[in-house]
Design a protein that fits this description.
Blueprint: E1 7-8, E2 18-20, H1 44-47, H2 53-59, E3 65-67, H3 70-76, E4 84-86, H4 88-94, E5 99-104, H5 115-127, E6 132-137, H6 141-153, E7 156-162, H7 163-168, H8 170-178, E8 182-186, H9 192-195, H10 205-218, E9 222-224, H11 231-236, H12 238-251, E10 257-261, H13 266-280, E11 287-293, H14 298-301, E12 303-308, E13 317-322, H15 344-351, E14 356-360, H16 362-376, H17 382-401, E15 406-411, H18 419-426, H19 437-445
Parallel strand pairs: 5-15, 6-7, 6-9, 7-8, 10-11, 10-15, 11-14
Antiparallel strand pairs: 1-4, 2-3, 4-5, 12-13
Bound molecules: pyridoxal-5'-phosphate (PLP).
Length: 454
């Protein structure tokens, strides 16, 4: 056996003690969210009906570091610190001088990065005396993460799952039920919103959100929970980047470029923020690439405007790149990337030119994912397949240029529940759905009235 290291692992005692808050390091003043009625900056009061105070404090925290509660770290210990791999076999397969590293979040019980925030959210809700969390899930990953977190922290969990996914992904549902969650096929007959939408039997994320929010709004012991986009969710995910920083130091290398896939932006934010902070402080020069689906190209084709964070228009107005809150992306297999907007903190970094965005169609993403699976063994989720595509392109560009380049990408989850997508790719029936400029323009015409962002 050679003495070449493949996995860089940290001991449990090196699990981060704090989350990294990027807000105080961002250039300029943060652009505030707005109350959609008054168009005044939204304050804690606007969020209080659905979020506990501790999470609201995290949402607006001016502190560069936020302490991770001990009980949350105890739960993180079940799978954290996660491994950082050097993809030596992929490097050989690509015949590239580049060094490729990836940070693997698929080792969590739910199979993705999402429990990093689900556990923190369940903990703060429990502390606030909340009995039950309710949420929506599309592809099933967020619902699984929250069901897992609630089961460990002693909360009830109710998930409204988009009808079409409920039918196509029965095992995601079984997984949530195994952790004790109640899963409703949405539209359901348990809410007014669901009953009014029985004419749309396959459901939509918008309908599922309406059902979940209705349940939370009607019961003071029930809160709603969001799995991406908001500042506190990105904050929780920074355990990923802090560990990766330490692990890259173990490997004795400095990444030239850090890459991740972007749906609402949380796994990418969590990976890059600790690296971005060093760049903003002049301590490093690193490039950052966010990879999104060509069918839902928020960062590469959207407009930088105030828009609702959800499909039905219940959140404060968030400053972000958006395709329009009621834009319905075509049904690509990377369900976790089909979101009309992106985390405001990530959007600000794109606006500043610190983060670059690229869009990839499904077939090139799956081609890279299969190449990765056949060299590194792990079958990636369709979402991080986009990050792998970008990493492979960087490695091939390094070969072209004949230069060593250190590439780090986030492998946000495994694809074990997504084999239908691999079936379609392998059978050659996967379609590269066109993004419709006209549909986007129509959705942009329905953006809420709000000032332009300076
Ligand atoms: C949900 C999900 C995503 C997309 O969400 P982000 O908030 O952009 O991270 C990406 N990868 C996996 C595995 C997911 O489950």
């Amino acid at each position: 056996m050679s003495d070449e290291t493949v996995k860089y692992t940290l001991p449990e005692r090196e699990l981060p003690t704090h989350w990294v808050n990027i807000i105080p390091d961002l250039p300029g003043d943060p652009v505030p969210p707005l109350n959609p009625q008054t168009l005044e900056p939204a304050g804690p009061a606007d969020l209080a009906p659905i979020f506990p105070e501790a999470l609201i404090r995290q949402e607006v925290s001016p502190e560069p570091l936020v302490e991770i509660p001990d009980e949350v770290r105890e739960v993180y210990k079940l799978w954290r610190p996660t491994p950082l791999y050097r993809a030596r076999r992929l490097e050989k397969a690509l015949d590239t001088p580049a060094h490729i590293y990836f940070k693997y979040e698929g080792v969590s019980p739910a199979g993705s990065h999402k429990p990093n925030s689900a556990v923190a959210q369940a903990y703060e809700n429990k502390q606030a005396g909340i009995k039950r969390l309710v949420t929506e899930t599309g592809a099933g990953q967020w619902g699984s993460a929250l069901a897992f977190a609630c089961s460990l922290l002693g909360l009830e969990c109710v998930v409204y799952m988009v009808g079409a996914s409920y039918d196509q992904k029965p095992y995601r549902r079984s997984m949530m039920q195994t952790w004790g969650a109640t899963v409703h096929r949405s539209p359901s007959d348990t809410t007014d919103a669901g009953r009014s939408q029985q004419g749309h039997p396959t459901g939509s994320l918008g309908i599922a959100i309406s059902e979940a929010v209705e349940v939370a709004a009607k019961d003071p012991e029930t809160n709603y929970s969001l799995g991406s986009v908001l500042n506190h969710v990105c904050l929780h995910q920074t355990v990923i980047g802090q560990e990766a920083l330490a692990q890259m130091q173990m490997a004795g290398e400095e990444p030239d470029v850090v890459i991740g896939c972007v749906g609402g932006g949380s796994n990418f934010a969590g990976l890059i923020f600790p690296f971005v902070r060093r760049v903003l402080r002049g301590e490093a020069k690193t490039r950052f690439i966010g990879a999104e689906p060509a069918a839902c190209p928020t960062l590469t084709r959207g407009v930088y405007r105030y828009d609702f964070g959800d499909t039905v228009g219940m959140t404060p107005l968030l400053p972000m790149y958006t395709l329009g809150h009621d834009f319905v992306p075509p049904p690509v297999h990377a369900g976790g990337l089909r979101y009309h907007g992106d985390a405001p903190l990530l959007c600000a970094l794109v606006k500043e030119g610190i983060v670059e965005a690229r869009a990839y169609a499904q077939n090139p993403a799956f081609e890279a994912a299969v190449r990765f699976a056949r060299s590194e063994g792990i079958v990636p989720g369709p979402e991080p397949a986009h990050a792998i595509r970008a990493a492979v392109d960087e490695a091939l560009a390094a070969r072209e240029a004949g230069e060593k380049r250190v590439i780090l990408f986030g492998l946000s989850g495994h694809g074990h529940f997504d084999m239908a997508a691999y079936d379609a790719y392998l059978a050659g029936t996967l379609e590269d759905v066109e993004f419709s400029e006209a549909d986007m323009q129509a959705a942009l015409d329905r953006l809420p009235d709000a000032p332009a962002i300076a």
